[in-house]
Design brief:
With 367 residues, the chain is of the alpha+beta class. The chain has 2 domains: 12-279, Beta Polymerase, domain 2 (2-Layer Sandwich), CATH 3.30.460; 284-311 and 321-345, no CATH class. Helices cover 49% and strands 14% of the residues. It has 8 helices and 7 strands; from the N terminus they run E-E-E-H-H-E-E-E-E-H-H-H-H-H-H. Strands 2-1-3-7-6-5-4 form a 7-stranded mixed sheet, with helices on both faces. The chain is rod-shaped, with a radius of gyration of 36 Å.
Length: 367
């Protein structure tokens, strides 16, 4: 009967899903009736306490290599199968918040969840702090759902769990997008420099890890789906996928593709912002050099004139005249003003901050 799930830590948790009810069992049943589905949920590091009872119930032996894969916390997403069962390793997501929201890098911490799919039985091996699997258990037990909404096969239940795990990835998009937008504004802000390059590179590395993770997940789901489509229904093995299960598997793949697309677009946004930052920096440097060159060009002929009149000759025209100094200064001022006017007409003295702008003269019209 519907109730509440015991949330205390247990080595194993068993849910028996029948025609219209979900019950939590304290021990494995002796056998499973037609239409029964047993969900055998285990957590890491439980010394394989689930293996022997499962083999007694199903008469299926789990290979040692697969057991070691399930105990490997760094194992990538992966699919493998035998004649009697299938194993899917699917890495879930936990977002580690940065110490400083404005400057810290979001870290996507991933842990594997292993699914063993047997006739009438689904075994999950997961981290103890998983959120998706306990939430699904609570929902199945507490809700009095009609039969159409209860999973009837291990594949149905696994696809629901995978869909919930992928949705956790979609929750990462909003905070990561907000952080990237903040960095883009800082990169393109001409009033202050950007110095958090290490954090930016770490975020780019996290995006690459997320992209690689999604590709591994897509490969695992595609291999499982393709093998199931080639399966023939039989009493000694697993049945082929129904149309509804194929639709649900495609939906999981589509969600993974959305995360993959977001990770790639985020990487492109970071690279574009960095390129724009260096382009603006180079443009401002060029503007400053152009202005300094124009100023040097203005003072060059004036320096030449002062150098000529500074020669140690006894007779220099104008040296003995009372107004010679003022005439020379006036000529130098006029020459300097003419050069300044020429350079301004040629737009050599525009202020460096006018990147992408065009000054308008009074009375001029836009083309």
């Amino acid at each position: 009967m519907p109730g509440t799930i015991d949330t205390t830590r247990k080595p194993m948790r068993l849910l028996l899903i029948q025609t219209s009810t979900v019950r939590e069992l304290n021990s494995p049943p002796e056998q499973l009736a037609a239409g029964d589905l047993l969900w055998w949920d285990c957590i890491y590091d439980e010394a394989r306490q689930w293996v022997a009872p499962l083999e007694r119930l199903t008469k299926v032996t789990i290979l040692e290599d697969h057991l070691r894969d399930a105990e490997n916390h760094t194992h990538p997403s992966y699919f493998d199968s035998t004649r009697h069962y299938e194993m899917i390793v699917f890495r879930g997501l936990a977002v580690a918040a940065p110490e400083h929201a404005e400057t810290g890098a979001l870290r996507a911490v991933t842990r594997p969840t292993t699914f063993f799919i047997l006739p009438k039985v689904l075994v999950t091996i997961r981290p103890a702090d998983s959120r998706t699997i306990p939430a699904m258990q609570q929902r199945l037990v507490t809700e009095n759902q009609p039969r159409a909404r209860l999973p009837s096969r291990p594949e149905d239940l696994m696809l629901r769990l995978l869909n919930g795990m992928v949705d956790r990835y979609l929750e990462l998009r909003e905070p990561m997008t907000a952080q990237l937008e903040r960095w883009q504004r800082r990169l393109l802000d001409p009033r202050r420099g950007f110095h958090d390059w290490l954090t930016l590179l770490e975020t780019r590395s996290e995006l690459r890890k997320l992209e690689q993770l999604c590709e591994e997940q897509l490969d695992a789901i595609a291999e499982w789906r393709n093998e199931r489509m080639d399966e023939d229904d039989g009493d000694d093995g697993l049945d082929s996928l129904s149309d509804a299960q194929l639709v649900r598997a495609n939906d999981v793949s589509e969600h993974i593709n959305r995360v993959l697309t977001h990770a790639r677009r985020a990487q492109e946004s970071v690279e574009t912002a960095v390129q724009l930052h260096f382009s603006m920096t180079s443009h401002r440097t060029n503007e400053m050099m152009r202005t300094l060159t124009a100023i040097t060009a203005v003072f060059l002929p004036l320096t030449l004139i002062t150098g000529i009149f500074g020669m140690n000759f006894e007779q220099i025209p104008g040296m003995s005249s009372a107004s010679g100094f003022w005439i020379t200064v006036g000529a130098m001022a006029v020459l300097g003003l003419l050069q300044v006017a020429f350079f301004r007409a040629q737009r050599f003295l525009d202020r460096p901050g006018s990147f992408g702008r065009r000054s308008r003269r009074p009375g001029s019209r836009e083309p």
